[in-house]
Design brief:
The protein has helices at 29-40, 56-63, 72-78, 91-99, 115-118, 139-147, 166-176, 189-220, 225-234, 237-248, 259-271, 275-290, 293-301, 313-322, 325-336; strands at 6-7, 22-25, 48-51, 67-69, 81-84, 108-111, 129-135, 154-161, 184-186. By secondary structure, the chain is of the alpha/beta class. The chain has 2 domains: 6-187, NAD(P)-binding Rossmann-like Domain (Rossmann fold, 3-Layer(aba) Sandwich), CATH 3.40.50; 192-336, no CATH class. Strands 1-9-8-7-6-5-2-3-4 form a 9-stranded mixed beta sheet. Helix 1 (29-40) runs parallel beside helix 6 (139-147), helix 8 runs antiparallel to helix 9 and helix 8 (189-220) crosses helix 12. Bound molecules: NADPH dihydro-nicotinamide-adenine-dinucleotide phosphate. The site of NADPH dihydro-nicotinamide-adenine-dinucleotide phosphate has 22 residues, from helix 1 and strand 7. NADPH dihydro-nicotinamide-adenine-dinucleotide phosphate is lined by residues 26-31, 52-53, 55, 57, 85-88, 90, 94, 112-113, 134-135, 138-139.
Length: 341
């Protein structure tokens, strides 16, 4: 497999941003962090505009000394660089209706997630640059790591190079938000979307299922709800294991476990036949994620996510999961231990 190119501070030139007006659409998790990092990297405050509806996010931006514009077409008109940092599901409507008609033909549009670009939900002009600078961190960590002088993992790509200057812009922005300090990994909207949605729709659903089935089997064998909840996740042991996996190695971290545990896990994993799960994973990746089937399904239910009660499909799913052996047992345990947890 080819290894990805990694870009560091020395690969980027902040000079390509000079005199450019940078507009951030959104001042939430990522918007607040990236705008502050960019300003602290030397982009002058009078060249930064926060586009936000008049509410608490806008007030937060003002209190931090930023210029805030509530009129989106007005913000679009002045942008040389536009960061799209509002939730993915609202980006197509807000961008296509309120920004796209007023944007300059040579603006650079920056996304922090590949979703809307890969599924072609945003109407770009061919003369515009579209770049992805996608931190693999929540916004508060993007800010706090920058403040500590540290970097954070980030994917970078040029999805459309309308001006033939998209790449230096993508690298300069990565440097300005603090992403090239630890190395920004060359990626693509396709890769980012594939990995993100695969994890959400193949890997984690199987992990949820494994935990639910394991819970049911052990409960049936006489294990108490309390013991099971603590044994399986409330002790935070799984969180610790993943932390060690990140620090020391996915398999190597097993050396911290007892010898019985190491033997059981290593031997057990090799004895399992992965062929069924592999074909299930491929089915999800190719016939649900990459072919856009999930995106169409999600778009169709999106409007219902604003509804109350069971008319909201997400609420319905929570209710259904709550009725499982694991869900019901955990509610009982949490109610009993309220105040102690
Ligand atoms: P947030 O949920 O924090 O976004 C909140 C911001 O979006 C606020 O400024 C809010 O202002 C604005 N907003 C919300 N709805 C609308 C609307 N309908 N019209 C206009 N503005 C709106 O988003 P994130 O920072 O979490 O995500 C932004 C991007 O970053 C996404 O593409 C996401 O995938 C990506 N990303 C997020 C990560 C994370 O940790 N959260 C990690 C890496 C990437 P108001 O409500 O006032 O309008």
């Amino acid at each position: 497999m080819p290894s990805a190119k990694i870009y560091y501070d020395t690969d980027a030139d902040l000079g390509v941003l000079s005199d450019k007006i940078v507009v951030f659409l959104g001042f939430g998790n990522q918007g607040a962090a990236q705008a502050q990092n960019l300003r602290d990297s030397g982009v002058p405050n009078d060249k930064i505009v926060i586009a936000n509806r008049p509410d608490s996010y806008a007030e937060d931006a003002k209190s931090r000394g930023f210029n805030v514009e509530h009129d989106f077409p007005k913000a679009a008109k002045v942008a040389d660089i536009l960061f799209l940092l509002i939730p993915d599901q609202v980006q197509p409507r807000v961008f296509n209706e309120e920004f796209a008609p007023s944007l300059k033909p040579d603006v650079a549009i920056v996304v922090a997630s590949g979703y809307n670009v890969y599924y072609k939900l945003l109407n770009f002009k061919p003369t515009q640059d579209v770049v992805m600078v996608a931190p693999r961190m929540i916004g508060s960590s993007v800010r706090s790591l920058f403040e500590k002088g540290k970097g954070f993992p980030c994917f970078v790509s040029v999805e459309q190079d309308g001006t033939h200057k998209g790449f230096p812009i993508a690298l300069a922005l990565s440097l300005a938000i603090g992403a090239t300090k630890a190395g920004a990994i060359a990626s693509s909207a396709r890769e980012e979307t594939a990995m993100d949605l695969f994890a959400e729709q193949a890997l984690w659903p199987n992990i949820i299922l494994l935990f639910k089935e394991a819970f049911g089997v052990l409960q049936e064998a006489g294990c108490s709800d309390e013991a099971l909840c603590y044994e399986m996740w409330m002790s935070k042991e799984p969180a610790e294991i993943f932390e060690r996996a990140a620090e020391e190695g996915f398999i190597t971290q097993l050396k911290h476990h007892s010898t019985v545990s190491q033997y059981g896990q290593l031997n057990g994993a090799l004895k399992l036949d992965g062929s069924t799960i592999r074909s299930h994973f491929k089915e999800i990746l190719y016939n649900r994620v990459l072919n856009g089937k999930f995106q169409r399904e999600f778009s169709a239910i999106e409007a219902d996510l604003e509804k109350e009660g069971d008319a909201n499909p997400l609420n319905k799913l929570y209710t259904e999961h709550g009725k499982s052996e694991l869900g019901e047992a955990e509610s009982r345990v949490r109610a009993r231990l309220a105040g102690l947890l």
